[in-house]
Every structure is written in structure tokens, then in C-alpha cells.
Amino acid sequence: MWECPDFFPVARRGRNGLDTSAAGPALKHVMKVSLDLTRFEYYTLGSYSPEKIDLLRSGGATEDPVGWSNESDSVADDVAKNWAGIQTIPRAVWLDNGGRQLVQWPVQELEKLRGRRWKDAQELCKKKGADVAGGVGPFGLWVLASGDLSERTAVFFRVFKGKEKHVVLLCHDDSSSTSRAGVWKPSFAGFVDVDIQKDRKISLRSLIDASVVESFGAGGKTCITSRVYPVHAVGGAAHLHAFNNGAAAVKISLLRAWQMGTPNMNQPTEP
């Protein structure tokens, strides 16, 4: 079943937002639809002809659970807390330089909430451990990790050797995210369109809340959202670790972390 369809223009060049009625050769249109069965959102990028009422597809669809994030625990838990489902962090949307892929990135206003900055990246890089070793990767972050690592959510890259170029995978592994029973703990993954042999580097940005992990790979080319429900890795007891369980050495050239503040929310007024 289709849910929450959306149709909007994006500029071929630049990152400025457009009015939804904008048209012309300087832009493309995006058709987004949510499928209730898969819980993914599908984006199709193409050219829109108002006269033909048609969307000529020119780019591959991407699938990202973004915008609305449903719960992964039980219905009984939803009833107990008296709510279910959240809105994820707002994102800016634009086309990459090639004009073939939609890019998503957290809105710039989010940076105003940055508070204390964590700097001890080298100590984090000394931490090791993951379940499946590889050649290049898995390497990335353990987030919302308990002190004994019995609870942890892995956000990592893995590189495979393809026929023409290396293939990069971004993955959320939620299998050890909580010790609670009755919680759905899936893995989400997406391929990242980068030339790792040429660039020799890849970026990762993750937004971490009490029960939400949002990750943006390669500047927003691949985006993944997970709902996790740790029992022990809560508040001050939640830790962040960098890890590499691959045979190849991986260097973290820059690691920055902030403790986020609370945004000012508009309060509804009585009629």
C-alpha cells in the first residue's frame, strides 16, 4: 500500500529550495512514495511534463526510511508510553554534482544545538571488536553502547571488490542494540555510490538520540535510520566507540562529536 506520496522540484545546480509549483529546464522533479509493506521510502528522480502529466525517469530510485520513523518494539510498549512513531531530524535535499542522485543532509540549524565537544578520538580508535571480520571493514562506530558492550548498535562500512570498481556498503546492525525481549532488531543497508579506490576516503555523519540512530554516508548519498531501545546504554551510561575489524588498516583523519542541546519548540496557542 502506498502512503504519504510526495512530488517536488529540485534545482539542477545549487542547494536553494524551490516553490512546489516551479517548472522549467533548470530543475528536476522527485516522486517519493512510502510502502507500508517494506517500511522504505522510494525516491524516483526525473523530468516532469505538465502537458503529458508524466514523469520521465532519469535516475535510479533510492530507498531510505526517513521523515517518519515507526516503532520497532511491541504494541504493548506503545500503549504503555501512550505514543508511537516519531519525526526524524529535518533534512535538506538537493542533487549531486552529476544531477543523477538525490542527496540528503541534516538541516544547518541543527549545528546551533552543538554543546560540549568531545576530542579524544585516538582513545576511541584503540577500541576493537565486531562479530564478523573482513578484508576492508567492517569499520565504523558502535553507538549507544553499554560499558560491557553487551548492548551496542553498529554503524559501519564494508568494501567489496567488484568487477569494475570496489563496492561500498553502509550498514546499521541492530542485532545487539538491546537486551530487552520482544524488540525487532533488524539490519539495514545500502550501497554507497563512491569511487573508494580514487578518493581513498569516505565520510560518515551520525545523529544519535535515546532511541534513534540516523546515519549519512558519503555526504548524504546513502541514509539509514534505525530505532533502538537499549536498557543499560542510557543517558550517561551510553558510550561511543570507533572500530575496525578488517585486515586492512583504516585511518580516522577527523572525528568530531558534540553533546546536543534541546531545540526551542513552538508551543500551540489556545484558539
TrEMBL record:
Domain Glycosyl hydrolase family 32 N-terminal: 1-106
Keyword Cell cycle: no
SMART domains: Glyco_32 (SM00640)
Swiss-Prot/TrEMBL keywords: Glycoprotein, Glycosidase, Hydrolase
Pfam families, per database record: Glyco_hydro_32C, Glyco_hydro_32N
Xref: Gene3D superfamilies: Exo-inulinase, domain 1, Glycosyl hydrolase domain, family 43
Hydrolase found in the keyword field: yes
One Gene Ontology MF term: hydrolase activity, hydrolyzing O-glycosyl compounds
Spans traversing the lipid bilayer: none
Domain Glycosyl hydrolase family 32 C-terminal: 131-258
Domain of life, source organism: Eukaryota
A biological process term (GO) from this entry: carbohydrate metabolic process
Family: Belongs to the glycosyl hydrolase 32 family.
Protein name per its UniProtKB record: Uncharacterized protein
